[in-house]
């Protein structure tokens, strides 16, 4: 994510904390099952390693990043709302949707659940 100074460290931190809370909430039942099985940390849950790190940890980080970026993009895209800014805001809608989808897929992958995309027609 490009940082041009518009987003203060406090805003970025808030978005990161909110994203972590959302991911944790969506993983709460799965987490309880893992803790009941004796795994008290995400990197202790059996999983493939990629570059020496649990794929679960990498997917968790991806989910948090995607939700954080989606939130920041939604919140700050309206700074320039005329002409090219409006067209840019419209193209960001699909970016935000893609980020939320990627976060959901990462969360589903951690839980071993199938990926799913549903759209109303």
Describe the structure in your own words.
The protein is mainly α and 121 residues long. The protein has helices at 9-26, 28-36, 55-76, 84-111; strands at 49-50, 53-54. The longest helix has 28 residues, at 84-111. The mean pLDDT is 88. Helix 1 (9-26) crosses helix 3 and helix 3 runs antiparallel to helix 4 (84-111). The protein has one domain (9-111).
User: How many separate domains make up the residues?
Assistant: 1
In order across it, which strands form the biggest sheet?
1-2
Poorly predicted runs = none
Number of helices: 4
**Radius of gyration, Cα only, in angstroms?**
17 Å
Order of helices and strands: HHEEHH
Range of strand content? under 5%
Main sheet overview:
2 strands, antiparallel
Structural class: mainly alpha
State the distance separating the first and last CA atoms: 32 Å
Rounded mean pLDDT score: 88
Shape: globular
Summarize the amount of helix as a percent range.
Answer: 55-70%
Strand segment count: 2
């Amino acid at each position: 994510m490009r940082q041009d100074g518009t987003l203060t460290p406090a805003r970025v931190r808030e978005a990161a904390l909110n994203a972590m809370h959302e991911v944790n909430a969506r993983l709460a039942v799965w987490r309880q099952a893992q803790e009941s099985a004796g795994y008290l940390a995400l990197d202790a849950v059996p999983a493939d390693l990629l570059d020496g790190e649990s794929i679960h940890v990498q997917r968790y980080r991806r989910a948090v990043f995607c939700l954080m970026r989606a939130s920041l993009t939604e919140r700050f895209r309206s700074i320039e709302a005329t002409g090219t800014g409006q067209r840019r805001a419209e193209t960001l809608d699909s970016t935000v949707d893609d980020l939320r989808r990627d976060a959901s897929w990462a969360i589903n992958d951690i839980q071993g659940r199938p990926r799913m995309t549903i759209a109303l027609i």
